[in-house]
Design goal:
Layout (H helix, E strand, L loop, with lengths): L33 H10 L28 H10 L4 H4 L1 H8 L3 H31 L6 H10 L4 H5 L1 H36 L22 H16 L4 H26 L18 H12 L5 H6 L7 H27 L15 H34 L7 H22 L3 H29 L6 H30 L9 H4 L4
Helix pairs in contact: 2-13, 4-5, 4-11, 4-13, 5-6, 5-11, 5-13, 5-16, 6-8, 6-16, 8-9, 8-14, 8-15, 8-16, 9-15, 10-14, 11-16, 11-17, 14-15, 16-17
Length: 500
């Protein structure tokens, strides 16, 4: 068993108070951070044996494994929750950007590759835990220790930068999600308020509606700002978990009603293109990766299982369900609304109180989820800021940093008030690195000196190249579209759903 003074990688530990492994996905509470994980260990009497960074401190590597783990069913629920959010609702537009034939096929391919990369990360973490006698490694730890144990001296000397890269992309991704939530909340609330005077109880009427004068969506974003600032002041994870449960229920009910609507009276798809223009395909890639980027939650969930040997089976089974959910909603949504499909399928729902309730319910879930997504970058950035000031100023600095970060995400949303493009931009710029680029390269770094088949090496290189290419082209296309003159959104969605 390794002791503290013999740990070859001990000099690489980052002195942060929180791990960086929380998911990008919207509803799963970040109770898997090391700050919270250590609290659970302390509650069971295991107050020694693990560092906040996830490494061993020289005692029994399994000390923190004594916490009563979650069941396979709870693990499955966490996976399903972590993949249900704004990205899911944007997939119908993503299929439009790829085509009715190419879209579902590409969605299936990217889904399989993303899940394969999740499996790679779990395998690499297990290998390093066994090799270094660590009880648990988060994403950043796995990359750092993988580089440290590689045969290349250059990689060993720059191992800490591997963790820095993961931390950077995680912060970028999480704050990007928070910006997306501002745009989503503003777009949905704007549509509900502007149509409120003509909203009826008849969800199947062909009557054309007259909207009230339009207010810029950015004003709605500003109206959410003070409420979200107050929300992120809640620092207790257990309180956030209660709100998370309410968010999960509201979003699940909303999805059931949305499915019930889009499966009825699907129009003839003969006028929909099987293959879309090539210039819109990069936007499909970014939006899809935004939806699938839940790789950060995989290792924390696996670490909390009672029977960890079953995790890969649950991972592949659960993600198969997610892929089927994504493909079905994306295809049915595009078939239902055709060329009129918007950045979120909720914006295409009919103008009646039932579907306005769906928009408000889902928006409530996203509103609560903001605090959960915000938790990770806050717990990475705030400890560093607080450590630089006298103790009496700790609370002031903590709340100030939280307020500043929320204002940053609001400012980014105001600068990019188009939900479809911000989804694609975040997915291409940051999610691709975490989901597709880094895991295959990590596998090569860890296993190359131990013997890898040429097929595995070539496959890993191709996956990373695909992720990198998609990231560059997707980011460029999203920025190019943002530079074009803005087109005011139309409200044909309010009646197009009824025209058969």
């Amino acid at each position: 068993m390794a002791t503290p003074n013999k740990d070859p990688t001990g000099n690489l530990e980052l002195k942060t108070k929180a791990t960086v492994t929380f998911s990008s996905n919207p509803v799963s509470p970040p109770d898997s951070t090391w700050k919270f994980h250590n609290k659970e260990c302390n509650n069971t009497g295991s107050k020694e044996g693990s560092t906040p960074e996830g490494g061993s401190s020289g005692s029994d590597p399994s000390s923190c494994q004594k916490v009563e783990g979650i069941t396979w069913f709870q693990t499955l629920i966490h996976l399903l929750k972590g993949n249900t959010g704004t990205g899911l609702l944007g997939l119908p537009l993503a299929v439009k950007n790829a085509g009715l034939l190419i879209g579902p096929l590409s969605l299936l391919l990217i889904g399989v590759v993303a899940v394969h990369c999740m499996g790679i990360l779990v395998k690499c973490a297990h290998h390093l835990c066994h090799k270094l006698q660590k009880p648990f490694l988060d994403y950043g730890d796995a990359v750092m220790y993988g580089l440290q144990t590689s045969p290349s001296s250059w990689l060993q000397n720059h191992a800490l930068w591997g963790r820095h890269v993961v931390v950077f992309f995680l912060i970028l991704t999480q704050l990007g999600f928070c910006s997306v939530y501002f745009v989503f909340l503003a777009d949905n609330l704007k549509q509900v308020i502007e149509a409120v005077n003509t909203t009826t109880t008849n969800c199947y009427s062909n009557e054309t509606v007259t909207l009230t004068p339009s207010i810029d969506s950015r004003l709605y974003m500003l109206s959410f700002l003070p409420f979200l600032v107050l929300l992120v002041f809640i620092r207790n994870l257990r309180i956030l978990s209660v709100f998370s449960m309410l968010a999960n229920i509201s979003m699940f009910v909303s999805l059931v009603v949305i499915y019930q609507h889009i499966v009825q009276s699907v129009p003839d798809p003969k006028n929909l293109p099987l293959v879309a223009e090539w210039k819109t395909y990069p936007l499909f890639f970014g939006t899809t990766l935004f939806a699938f980027e839940s790789i950060g939650v995989v290792l924390p969930i696996e670490n909390k299982m009672k029977k960890k040997d079953h995790f890969l089976v649950i991972l592949y089974g659960g993600m198969t369900m997610i892929i089927l959910l994504y493909i079905s909603l994306a295809c049915l949504g595009y078939l239902k609304f055709g060329a009129a499909i918007q950045a979120s399928i909720t914006l295409n729902l009919p103008n009646c109180w039932l579907f306005h309730s769906v928009k408000l319910l889902y928006s409530f879930g996203i509103f609560i989820t903001y605090a959960l997504q915000f938790y990770v970058p806050a717990e990475i950035i705030i400890p560093s800021a607080v450590s630089r000031v006298p103790k009496k100023w700790n609370l002031v600095v903590d709340l100030s940093v939280r307020t500043g970060l929320v204002c940053v995400t609001c400012a980014l949303a105001i600068l990019i008030p188009r939900l479809d493009l911000v989804l694609a931009l975040v997915g291409s710029m940051s999610s691709s690195a975490l989901a597709m680029i880094i895991p295959p390269l990590l596998e090569i770094v860890i296993y190359y000196s131990e013997g890898m088949s040429p097929i595995t090496i070539v496959t890993d290189i191709l996956i990373s190249f695909l992720g990198f290419s998609g990231s560059v082209v997707g980011t460029y296309q999203a920025l190019y579209e943002l530079a074009q003159p803005s087109v005011s959104p139309t409200f044909s969605n309010l009646t197009s759903a009824f025209v058969q």
